[in-house]
Amino acid sequence: MDNPMRVVSLLRFLSIVITISICPCNGNLISVPCKEYERQALLMLKQDLKDPSNRLSSWVGGEGDCCNWTGVICDKKTGHVRELHLGNYYADEEFSSESSSLGGKLNPSLLNLKHLSYLDLYRNDFEGKQIPSFLGSLKSLRYLNLSEARFGGTIPPQLGNLSSLRTLDLFDNLLVVENLQWISGLSLLQHLNIAGIDLSKVSHWLQGTNTLPSQLVELHMSECDLGVLPGGISNMTSLRVLNLDYNSISSIIPIWLYTFSNLETLVLSENNFHGEISSSIGNLTALVNLDTSDNQLDGKIPNSLGNLCKLMVLEFSRNNFSGSISEIFESLSTCSSGRIELLGLSDNNLSGYLSQLGNFKNLGSLDFSSNSISGPIPVSLGNLSCLESLDIGNNQLEGVVSEVHFTNLTKLKYFYASENSLTLKTSLDWLPPFQLNTLFLNSWHLEPSELPAWLQTQTKLYALNLSNTAISGIIPTWFWNFSSLGLGLLDLSYNQLYGKVPNIDSMSSEVINLGSNQFHGSLPLFSSHITTLDLSNSSFSGTLFHFFCDKTDGPKQLEILQLQDNFLNGEIPDCLDNLQNLTLLNLENNNLGGNIPASVGHLGLLRSLHLRNNHLSGEVPTSLQKCESLFLLDLHKNEFVGTIPTWIGKSLSHLGILSLRSNMLHDNIPHELCSLRNLQILDVADNHLSGAIPTCFKNFTAMANFSNSRDPILFSTISFGDGEASFEDNYIENAILVRKGREMEYNKILTLVTSLDLSDNFISGEIPEELTSLIYLQSFNLSGNLLVGKIPSKIGDMRWLESLDLSRNKLTGQISPSMSKLTFLSNLNLSYNYLTGQIPESTQLQSLDRSSFFGNKLCGPPLEKCSTTHGGSSISSGDQKKGGIGRLLEDGWLDLSLGLGFAFGFWSVLGSLLLNMPWSTGFSRFQNNIVSKLYAIIQEKL
Predict the structure, then answer these.
(1) Distance CA 41, CA 30 (A)
(2) Can you give the residue range of the structural domain that contains 23?
(3) What is the pLDDT of residue 735?
(4) Which residue, 56, 234, 508, 689, is most buried by CB atoms nearer than 10 A?
């Protein structure tokens, strides 16, 4: 009995010793310290890393347990380093993302961490260095995160040796992929993120292979430049997350995708998917997040969406879906309405009335803007107590919106409702239940028609747009105090507001638009914070001196300034260096005089300068050549003298629009302008220019090549918002051209417009045949000059011409038969030349007005029929019957009589002009044109 008792006693003693050795008083396991060779490996790793924010300050030499170091996690039983958490998650904390980034290089000492299963290097900065191939030897790795760490070069295929890997995240690096075969070695991989990596070179190879592991549950391949769907995805029936957004995949949604019953998140946005969504989508009953926005999907949204009872996010915006929105709400009400938090249906072709809104109790974001939805807004909107963002803009909604519509909207922050036929009717003492960040009600009607007093309660309001709401009166004092509290955007344009605008130098706003009202008085001083200011189309008067030259608030941040269409006078002050951030300056249609100041040369960022229709004088200043970013220069209808500067062609290489029309410029058109290859609009009409048309105009590439850009020209796009709901404030560039005899304004389609106008000058010589290479020129005007010779034989090559005016010259010969190829021509004027023969036959030419050919010796439709006489000359029977003025015009005697009249009256008229200089500039131009034409006639007849 003694021996067994001794054994029991010994066992009890050993168990106590073991328990004491591994269990401290607090009951937790005693951690074994890290291995010395692993501690040394970490110190070597630190030695090669850049650590500007000293994140690894706890990694020190000497004695110490490396398991207590920042980012190091060890196995408590063995002391082996198991995890390295070195991701940069400090961007929103005390460090900025850049200053807290680790960099340098990874030391191969990592290979001594043989038990390492987790390595996170997220959002560090390895400056384009290649991913070390030795990482493929870390056989124990189960998790590898290198996302946003700025690795570059080719992905090492050795990563395919990580047979234990479950998660691989390479998102958003500078990586190049030539082969993905190595992925097939990752037999246990479940989570793969290769988003942001260019796979265009392997996309077709991916289509027909099963390289990607079939057991994946999460696959992210957004922004990979895919043009096709990788074929291997069809085998991944275990997928729970599939993200393919921001690619160029052009196909229908494949039928096999509707069989993925485990799929919880499906993101196909920003592709070229087309066709209809199959009703089989109802089989994806596990779906929580469905996003097909920004594609070309069409047809009706299937009612089977009602089967998706777990759905929380549904984003179908920016497609071509049709049908009734009430049917969509009805189908979603079947079982998912109580769960849906985000519903996006904007920019489609949906119609019908709104209904059943009150069923979506958890809805936080609702967007059905830019559709054709009509009728009133149901009162049930007020039951959506979780709603934070509502966008119903650009529809056909009508009726009255009252306080009851907002009863329970206590969480509403963003309300976009522009461009509807709605009326907001509230009491004067209404206290809204919400605190808005953004309110866009432009084109509504407000009752009462004044700035709502309840705006004073919105202490968190950042963006307010009440343009075109028919509000009137003087802006109350409380509004200026309220708007100085933090309003970033204020738009009250296109209303009937009047009175004086006080100084807005205390406002914190970035964008202020008070244009198209009835304000008067001097311009207000403005804050240095403002980046966009529009005070156009009102009745402001006085000078620009204090407005431009005030520096009490520090350097100005102003980028866009619009003061056009007012009654401003005086000179442009020479302190434009105070506005060095300007990209656009519009002062057109005022009463400004004097020279353009030299300080304009300090506006190095200026892209658009509108000064038309003022009384500016002097020469075009040389300081403008420092504005090398200029895209538009409009000096039309001023009193500039001198020559067209040669430096325009040398320094302003980005110029796309140049208008010097209706000034007093003289001499030849400089050949240096031919260097402006981006020039799409050139207007130097109504000056005193002479000489020949430069043949090098054929170098205007923008007039010779088709522009496939249909996007408007935007200036200084300013983005607002906090990420959840945002908006942009854009200025769309515009230009006013004289086409078809009248001024026309172009803005949204300005990128598609080409025009060349040299009319009403003293330009001589022949029309260069080389100009016919400008095949995408739309408007071509050479009228009112001294041009001779024939119409270029290849004029028909300019097949995009819509308007051609060669009238009032001395052109001879027949109309080129190639002109019959100008099928877009809607305006033609060849009148008052010396053209002869038959008008070429074409549907286009014969449909034009007879006046297009008057003052020549032409025949054929739309004029009288031709008859053959006088050695091939064609004279119509109508012409033979002409007498009086008609015969004088035909025989040239009226020209001679006018010439004799000129001889007697020349000095009486011109002399009076010389002695009476204050006569109006406009009348002077008129007289100059008459004198020049009469002089030309005399010279020819005598």
Answers:
(1) 24
(2) 1-30
(3) 87
(4) 689
